[in-house]
Amino acid sequence: MKLAFFDDFRFGVVSGDKVVDVTELVGGIPHLGPQDIVRGVIERFGEFKGKLADAAAKGQGKPVAQVKFRPPLPKPENIVCMAVNYMEDGTLAEPAPINAFMKSPTAVIGDGDTMVLPDLGATIFEGEAELAVVIGKRARHVKAADAMSYVFGYTNFIDGSARGVLPPGNTFYQMKSRYTFAPIGPYIVTADEIKDPQKVQIKLTNNGVVYQNFNTDDMAHKIPRCIEWITSIHALEPGDILATGTNHRGLNPFMDGDKIELSCEGCGTLHINVRDDLKRSWTRITRLQHKQSGAEGVHTKQTSGKYAK
Known about the structure:
By secondary structure, this protein is of the alpha+beta class. The chain has two domains: 2-70, no CATH class; 79-304, Fumarylacetoacetase-like, C-terminal domain (Fumarylacetoacetate hydrolase, domain 2, Alpha-Beta Complex), CATH 3.90.850. Helix content is 15%, strand content 32%. The protein is built from five helices and 19 strands. The protein has helices spanning 34-43, 45-58, 171-176, 223-231, 287-292; strands at 2-6, 10-15, 18-21, 62-63, 69-70, 79-82, 100-102, 108-109, 114-116, 124-135, 151-163, 182-190, 201-206, 209-215, 241-243, 259-264, 270-275, 281-282, 302-304. Strands 1, 2, 3, 4, 5, 6, 7, 8, 10, 11, 12 and 15 form a twelve-stranded mixed β-sheet that branches. The chain has a five-stranded mixed β-sheet with strand order 9-17-16-13-14, with no helix packed on it. Strands 18-19 form a two-stranded antiparallel ribbon. The chain is globular and about 60 Å long.
Protein backbone atom coordinates (compact mmCIF):
# COMPACT_ATOMS: atom_id res chain seq x y z
CA MET A 1 0.00 0.00 0.00
CA LYS A 2 1.15 3.51 -0.80
CA LEU A 3 0.22 6.24 1.70
CA ALA A 4 0.49 9.94 0.97
CA PHE A 5 -0.46 13.45 1.94
CA PHE A 6 -1.60 15.61 -0.96
CA ASP A 7 -2.93 19.09 -1.75
CA ASP A 8 -3.81 20.75 1.60
CA PHE A 9 -2.53 17.70 3.52
CA ARG A 10 -5.42 15.44 2.67
CA PHE A 11 -4.53 11.83 3.50
CA GLY A 12 -4.67 9.41 0.62
CA VAL A 13 -3.95 5.94 -0.70
CA VAL A 14 -2.17 5.87 -4.06
CA SER A 15 -3.74 3.24 -6.30
CA GLY A 16 -2.29 3.00 -9.79
CA ASP A 17 -2.35 6.46 -11.34
CA LYS A 18 -4.88 7.84 -8.84
CA VAL A 19 -4.96 9.03 -5.25
CA VAL A 20 -8.04 8.12 -3.22
CA ASP A 21 -8.87 10.56 -0.42
CA VAL A 22 -9.26 8.67 2.88
CA THR A 23 -9.00 11.70 5.17
CA GLU A 24 -12.40 11.11 6.75
CA LEU A 25 -11.52 7.50 7.46
CA VAL A 26 -8.57 8.50 9.65
CA GLY A 27 -10.15 11.67 11.02
CA GLY A 28 -10.68 10.11 14.45
CA ILE A 29 -6.96 9.93 15.14
CA PRO A 30 -6.13 12.63 17.71
CA HIS A 31 -3.90 15.16 16.00
CA LEU A 32 -2.50 18.65 16.11
CA GLY A 33 -0.88 18.30 12.69
CA PRO A 34 -0.49 15.85 9.80
CA GLN A 35 2.45 13.98 11.37
CA ASP A 36 0.13 12.85 14.16
CA ILE A 37 -2.25 11.41 11.57
CA VAL A 38 0.32 9.36 9.71
CA ARG A 39 1.90 8.22 12.97
CA GLY A 40 -1.52 7.11 14.18
CA VAL A 41 -2.10 5.14 10.99
CA ILE A 42 1.32 3.50 11.34
CA GLU A 43 0.79 2.63 15.00
CA ARG A 44 -2.70 1.21 14.34
CA PHE A 45 -2.11 -0.17 10.86
CA GLY A 46 -3.58 -3.55 11.77
CA GLU A 47 -6.84 -1.74 12.44
CA PHE A 48 -6.70 0.55 9.41
CA LYS A 49 -5.17 -1.65 6.72
CA GLY A 50 -8.36 -3.38 5.58
CA LYS A 51 -10.41 -0.20 5.73
CA LEU A 52 -7.83 1.74 3.71
CA ALA A 53 -7.56 -1.01 1.10
CA ASP A 54 -11.33 -1.19 0.77
CA ALA A 55 -11.63 2.58 0.44
CA ALA A 56 -8.89 2.64 -2.19
CA ALA A 57 -10.64 -0.08 -4.19
CA LYS A 58 -14.03 1.63 -4.09
CA GLY A 59 -13.02 5.31 -4.18
CA GLN A 60 -13.11 7.33 -7.36
CA GLY A 61 -9.72 8.90 -6.81
CA LYS A 62 -7.95 11.90 -8.30
CA PRO A 63 -5.30 11.54 -11.03
CA VAL A 64 -1.78 11.64 -9.61
CA ALA A 65 -0.86 14.22 -12.24
CA GLN A 66 -3.43 16.61 -10.76
CA VAL A 67 -2.37 16.48 -7.11
CA LYS A 68 0.38 18.20 -5.17
CA PHE A 69 2.12 15.58 -3.05
CA ARG A 70 3.21 16.73 0.39
CA PRO A 71 5.92 15.15 2.54
CA PRO A 72 4.49 11.78 3.64
CA LEU A 73 6.22 12.27 7.02
CA PRO A 74 5.98 16.04 7.55
CA LYS A 75 7.72 16.21 10.93
CA PRO A 76 9.18 12.93 12.21
CA GLU A 77 10.62 12.95 15.71
CA ASN A 78 13.89 11.51 14.47
CA ILE A 79 15.69 11.56 11.12
CA VAL A 80 18.77 9.37 11.47
CA CYS A 81 21.15 9.08 8.50
CA MET A 82 23.80 6.42 8.13
CA ALA A 83 27.25 7.78 7.26
CA VAL A 84 29.67 6.14 4.80
CA ASN A 85 27.45 3.08 4.59
CA TYR A 86 28.30 1.74 1.13
CA MET A 87 31.20 -0.29 -0.20
CA GLU A 88 31.38 2.10 -3.19
CA ASP A 89 30.70 -0.58 -5.82
CA GLY A 90 32.90 -2.99 -3.93
CA THR A 91 35.98 -0.75 -4.16
CA LEU A 92 36.49 -0.42 -0.39
CA ALA A 93 38.64 -3.06 1.26
CA GLU A 94 36.43 -3.15 4.34
CA PRO A 95 33.35 -1.39 5.72
CA ALA A 96 33.85 1.94 7.45
CA PRO A 97 33.01 1.83 11.17
CA ILE A 98 29.28 2.11 11.64
CA ASN A 99 28.30 5.75 12.13
CA ALA A 100 25.33 8.07 11.75
CA PHE A 101 24.12 11.63 12.24
CA MET A 102 20.78 13.35 12.71
CA LYS A 103 18.98 15.89 10.55
CA SER A 104 16.46 18.41 11.80
CA PRO A 105 12.80 17.48 11.16
CA THR A 106 12.31 21.05 9.95
CA ALA A 107 14.59 20.25 7.00
CA VAL A 108 11.85 18.07 5.45
CA ILE A 109 10.33 19.02 2.09
CA GLY A 110 8.24 17.00 -0.34
CA ASP A 111 7.75 16.17 -3.99
CA GLY A 112 7.95 19.20 -6.27
CA ASP A 113 9.43 21.39 -3.54
CA THR A 114 12.69 23.33 -3.71
CA MET A 115 16.01 22.76 -1.97
CA VAL A 116 17.42 26.21 -1.22
CA LEU A 117 21.20 26.57 -1.13
CA PRO A 118 22.19 28.93 1.69
CA ASP A 119 24.63 31.83 1.62
CA LEU A 120 27.69 30.25 3.22
CA GLY A 121 31.17 29.24 2.14
CA ALA A 122 30.55 25.59 1.42
CA THR A 123 33.01 23.99 -0.99
CA ILE A 124 30.13 22.26 -2.81
CA PHE A 125 26.44 21.40 -2.39
CA GLU A 126 25.36 17.82 -3.02
CA GLY A 127 22.28 15.65 -2.60
CA GLU A 128 22.70 11.98 -1.72
CA ALA A 129 20.25 9.44 -3.13
CA GLU A 130 19.06 7.14 -0.36
CA LEU A 131 16.46 4.53 0.51
CA ALA A 132 14.78 5.57 3.75
CA VAL A 133 13.28 3.13 6.23
CA VAL A 134 10.07 4.20 7.99
CA ILE A 135 9.84 2.87 11.53
CA GLY A 136 6.61 1.09 12.45
CA LYS A 137 6.72 0.76 16.23
CA ARG A 138 8.78 1.98 19.15
CA ALA A 139 12.22 0.44 18.91
CA ARG A 140 14.71 0.30 21.77
CA HIS A 141 17.57 -2.20 22.16
CA VAL A 142 16.38 -4.17 19.13
CA LYS A 143 18.38 -7.21 18.06
CA ALA A 144 19.33 -7.45 14.40
CA ALA A 145 17.44 -10.73 14.10
CA ASP A 146 14.20 -8.95 15.07
CA ALA A 147 14.86 -5.60 13.42
CA MET A 148 12.82 -5.99 10.23
CA SER A 149 9.63 -6.46 12.26
CA TYR A 150 10.05 -2.80 13.29
CA VAL A 151 10.00 -1.59 9.69
CA PHE A 152 6.70 -0.14 8.48
CA GLY A 153 7.80 0.84 5.01
CA TYR A 154 10.12 2.79 2.76
CA THR A 155 10.38 6.08 0.89
CA ASN A 156 12.80 8.04 -1.28
CA PHE A 157 15.16 10.35 0.61
CA ILE A 158 17.71 12.95 -0.52
CA ASP A 159 20.36 13.89 2.02
CA GLY A 160 21.26 17.48 1.21
CA SER A 161 24.83 18.42 2.12
CA ALA A 162 26.82 21.64 2.32
CA ARG A 163 30.38 20.31 2.19
CA GLY A 164 33.48 21.93 3.63
CA VAL A 165 31.76 24.22 6.12
CA LEU A 166 34.15 25.67 8.69
CA PRO A 167 35.27 25.21 11.37
CA PRO A 168 36.42 21.58 11.02
CA GLY A 169 35.01 19.23 13.63
CA ASN A 170 31.58 20.86 13.62
CA THR A 171 30.60 19.69 10.18
CA PHE A 172 27.66 17.28 10.29
CA TYR A 173 25.27 19.63 12.08
CA GLN A 174 26.12 22.59 9.87
CA MET A 175 26.10 20.78 6.55
CA LYS A 176 23.21 18.38 7.03
CA SER A 177 20.41 20.01 9.05
CA ARG A 178 19.80 23.07 6.94
CA TYR A 179 16.35 24.19 5.88
CA THR A 180 15.02 22.14 2.90
CA PHE A 181 17.91 19.65 3.08
CA ALA A 182 15.73 16.55 3.70
CA PRO A 183 13.47 15.92 0.67
CA ILE A 184 11.30 12.79 1.01
CA GLY A 185 8.43 11.13 -0.83
CA PRO A 186 6.30 11.18 -2.80
CA TYR A 187 4.68 8.56 -0.55
CA ILE A 188 5.37 5.76 1.92
CA VAL A 189 5.39 2.24 0.49
CA THR A 190 4.50 -0.40 3.07
CA ALA A 191 7.15 -3.06 3.70
CA ASP A 192 5.15 -5.88 2.10
CA GLU A 193 5.53 -4.20 -1.32
CA ILE A 194 9.35 -4.25 -1.24
CA LYS A 195 10.40 -7.88 -1.69
CA ASP A 196 13.99 -7.39 -0.55
CA PRO A 197 15.16 -3.97 0.67
CA GLN A 198 18.76 -5.15 0.22
CA LYS A 199 18.20 -5.52 -3.51
CA VAL A 200 16.71 -2.14 -4.44
CA GLN A 201 18.06 -0.19 -7.41
CA ILE A 202 18.52 3.52 -6.67
CA LYS A 203 18.77 6.07 -9.47
CA LEU A 204 19.20 9.84 -9.26
CA THR A 205 19.09 12.12 -12.27
CA ASN A 206 20.07 15.79 -12.48
CA ASN A 207 18.42 17.61 -15.38
CA GLY A 208 17.65 14.25 -16.97
CA VAL A 209 21.21 12.90 -16.77
CA VAL A 210 21.82 9.82 -14.60
CA TYR A 211 24.49 10.50 -11.98
CA GLN A 212 23.82 7.98 -9.23
CA ASN A 213 22.80 4.43 -10.14
CA PHE A 214 23.54 1.77 -7.55
CA ASN A 215 21.95 -1.07 -5.59
CA THR A 216 21.34 -1.48 -1.88
CA ASP A 217 23.12 -4.84 -2.05
CA ASP A 218 26.33 -2.75 -1.83
CA MET A 219 25.34 -1.48 1.62
CA ALA A 220 28.15 -1.96 4.15
CA HIS A 221 26.01 -2.27 7.27
CA LYS A 222 22.67 -3.84 6.37
CA ILE A 223 19.35 -2.46 7.60
CA PRO A 224 18.95 -4.87 10.55
CA ARG A 225 22.41 -3.98 11.85
CA CYS A 226 21.68 -0.26 11.46
CA ILE A 227 18.48 -0.56 13.47
CA GLU A 228 20.25 -2.63 16.11
CA TRP A 229 23.04 -0.09 16.48
CA ILE A 230 20.86 3.02 16.49
CA THR A 231 18.38 1.62 19.01
CA SER A 232 21.25 0.74 21.33
CA ILE A 233 21.81 4.51 21.55
CA HIS A 234 18.26 5.90 21.60
CA ALA A 235 14.70 4.90 20.81
CA LEU A 236 13.12 5.18 17.39
CA GLU A 237 9.43 6.05 17.27
CA PRO A 238 6.67 5.17 14.78
CA GLY A 239 7.00 7.43 11.76
CA ASP A 240 10.71 8.06 12.28
CA ILE A 241 13.09 7.98 9.31
CA LEU A 242 16.26 5.94 9.00
CA ALA A 243 18.12 6.97 5.84
CA THR A 244 20.40 4.11 4.86
CA GLY A 245 23.28 5.96 3.16
CA THR A 246 24.54 6.41 -0.38
CA ASN A 247 27.18 5.40 -2.89
CA HIS A 248 29.34 8.52 -3.06
CA ARG A 249 30.96 7.86 -6.45
CA GLY A 250 28.05 9.42 -8.34
CA LEU A 251 27.61 12.51 -6.18
CA ASN A 252 27.50 15.67 -8.25
CA PRO A 253 27.10 19.40 -7.60
CA PHE A 254 23.59 20.75 -7.05
CA MET A 255 23.22 24.20 -8.62
CA ASP A 256 20.59 26.83 -9.28
CA GLY A 257 17.83 25.66 -11.61
CA ASP A 258 18.62 21.96 -11.31
CA LYS A 259 15.73 19.52 -11.53
CA ILE A 260 16.40 16.37 -9.53
CA GLU A 261 14.59 13.04 -9.74
CA LEU A 262 15.18 10.15 -7.34
CA SER A 263 13.71 6.68 -7.81
CA CYS A 264 14.30 3.92 -5.30
CA GLU A 265 12.86 0.82 -6.97
CA GLY A 266 9.24 0.33 -5.87
CA CYS A 267 9.00 3.73 -4.16
CA GLY A 268 7.91 5.93 -7.06
CA THR A 269 9.84 9.05 -8.07
CA LEU A 270 10.68 12.05 -5.94
CA HIS A 271 11.07 15.32 -7.85
CA ILE A 272 12.72 18.42 -6.41
CA ASN A 273 14.08 21.72 -7.69
CA VAL A 274 17.25 23.50 -6.59
CA ARG A 275 17.54 27.26 -6.04
CA ASP A 276 20.66 29.27 -5.40
CA ASP A 277 20.11 33.01 -5.28
CA LEU A 278 23.89 33.48 -5.54
CA LYS A 279 24.03 31.53 -8.85
CA ARG A 280 27.26 29.73 -7.89
CA SER A 281 28.66 27.10 -10.24
CA TRP A 282 30.83 23.98 -10.26
CA THR A 283 32.06 21.74 -13.05
CA ARG A 284 29.26 19.27 -13.74
CA ILE A 285 31.05 16.00 -13.00
CA THR A 286 30.73 13.24 -10.42
CA ARG A 287 33.12 12.52 -7.59
CA LEU A 288 34.34 9.46 -9.49
CA GLN A 289 35.01 11.50 -12.64
CA HIS A 290 36.85 14.10 -10.58
CA LYS A 291 39.04 11.40 -9.04
CA GLN A 292 39.73 9.79 -12.40
CA SER A 293 40.85 13.16 -13.78
CA GLY A 294 43.66 13.25 -11.21
CA ALA A 295 42.48 16.55 -9.75
CA GLU A 296 43.03 17.45 -6.11
CA GLY A 297 40.42 16.99 -3.40
CA VAL A 298 37.36 14.81 -3.09
CA HIS A 299 35.14 16.81 -5.42
CA THR A 300 35.36 19.45 -8.12
CA LYS A 301 36.04 23.03 -7.08
CA GLN A 302 33.70 26.00 -7.36
CA THR A 303 34.24 27.79 -10.67
CA SER A 304 32.27 31.02 -10.25
CA GLY A 305 30.20 33.06 -7.84
CA LYS A 306 30.53 34.16 -4.25
CA TYR A 307 33.16 32.17 -2.28
CA ALA A 308 34.93 30.92 -5.41
CA LYS A 309 38.72 30.96 -4.97
